[in-house]
Amino acid sequence: MHEAAIISQLHDQVVTSIRARMPDEGQEDPEPIGRLTTVHIRVGELEHLDDEVMNTVWKAYTMDTFLHGADLEIMTIPLSVACRQCAHEYVPEDPAILLCPQCHHIDPDVKQGTGIILHSIVIDEPVEETA
Amino acid sequence: MEIKIIENVLKLNDEVAQQNRHQLREAGVTCINLIGSPGSGKTALLERTLEMLGSDLAVGVLAGDMATTRDANRLAAFTPHVVQINVGKSCHLDANQVRQGMNSLDLTALDLLIIENVGNLICPVGFDLGQDVKVGMFSATEGDDKPAKHPYLVLEAGLLLLNKIDLLPHVPFDVTRFREDVGSIREGIPLIELSAVTGDGLDVWCTWLRRLCNERPSTDKQPCCEPGAVL
Fold first, then answer.
1. B135: which residues sit within 8 A by CB, 6+ positions away?
2. How far apart are alpha carbons B88 and A31 in whole angstroms?
3. Chain B environment of A106 (Cβ under 8 Å)
């Protein structure tokens, strides 16, 4: 499953990002910086990743880990193409058909709509109890 | 508290892929990543390819499969430089697996490394392995609609192959529609129609491989053949 491989990499990247921000990073039992609530990612339309499957796999993958309970928020990066023949920039109606509406050549330079980006993570900072 | 990160999720894979690419270029080895469906005839094509290239090129193969060493066993009859990579439940090869496979080969003895990816038209496309060119493979028995259904492979590949053309009279496969669909996704992408069984088209394929090896890249970042520029 394509989504599982991506989630596996995302999981490792989120863990690395959190550990790098722990004040006592590198120690055996570092102090948590708070509870992870949301992971925001951006996914290109051409990556052919299904949001629902991504979320299901994310929940399964983070179960029994300290990321458990964090939501995965996915924003789609829409496809945008520039024609190499006439330089016209356009948004294809169908990602499978990249015909330039201006010169009718099919010589696309994909400007946007690929890639999977870990954009940000949201952490609930622990509230210090006052006496 | 929102912490901005903005990192490619495949960053770790891409870093290893770039190391692979650098190591291969240092050793003077050209590398292709062969991507096709299960049963499209990738291994059969490699058997015939190794046979035809003979001593022209020293070819190594990394064969990716979920399980068994059957592909490597078949190819070992044609080259001593074969490594089987079993990916278990994964559906594609990643750069680290290729790195481990490369470590089992004597790269200085090779001109060309062919990575036979796990049979799959979707997942392998998104994972850089360190190759110079991705080659997308379709076959007559899969149906003529596969390029239209898998446009990302057509967009990413430097060359497409249509295998099993000897079966065209016997299967409902509209070659004209297939070519039109390919052209509607990537005008001008080179396409070689061949049969690993009868040998039709294999001379064109082997000529393409020889030419690719003769146009070795001088940097890590530029592919050694621009799509559409070879045939």
1. B32, B33, B34, B35, B157, B158, B159, B160, B161
2. 36
3. 183-187
ipTM exceeds 0.85, yes or no: no
Q: Mutate which of A35, A42, A83, A106 to test chain B, going by most B C-beta atoms within 10 A?
A: A106
Phi, psi of A129 (to 5 degrees): -75, 135
Interface of B with A in 15-54 (CB under 8 A): none
- pLDDT digits over B73-86, tens only? 999 999 999 999 99
Candidates B1, B3, B4, B9: best to mutate against A (most CBs of A within 10 A) is B9
| Shortest CA distance from B151: residue in chain A | A96
* A107 with B187: Cβ contact below 8 A: yes
The answer to whether residues B49 and B209 touch, using CB atoms and an 8 Å cutoff, is: yes
> How much is the mean pLDDT over chain B?
91
pTM of the model: 0.83
Half-sphere exposure in the Cβ direction for B157 (13 Å, CA)? 29
Q: Give how far Cα B100 sits from Cα of B35, B95, B108, Å.
A: 19, 9, 16
DSSP for B31-97 reads EEEEEE-TTSSHHHHHHHHHHHHTTSS-EEEEEEESS-SHHHHHHTTT-S-EEEEE-TT-SS--HHH
Domains, chain B, with CATH or none:
11-214 (3.40.50.300)
Question: Is the pLDDT at B88 greater than 80, yes or no?
Answer: yes
What kind and span of H or E run contains A7? helix A2-20
Provide, as residue numbers in chain A, all residues whose Cβ is less than 8 Å from the Cβ of B6: 117-120
* Nearest chain B alpha carbon to A106: B187
Side chain identity at residue A26, one-letter code: G
Band of residue A57 on the pLDDT scale cut at 50, 70, 90: very high
Give the 3-state secondary structure of residue B223: coil
Q: What mean pLDDT do residues B207-218 have?
A: 87
Mean pLDDT in residue range A79-104: 89
**Cα(A4)–Cα(A61) distance, rounded to whole angstroms?**
8
Closest CA to B190 of B222, B163, B154: B154
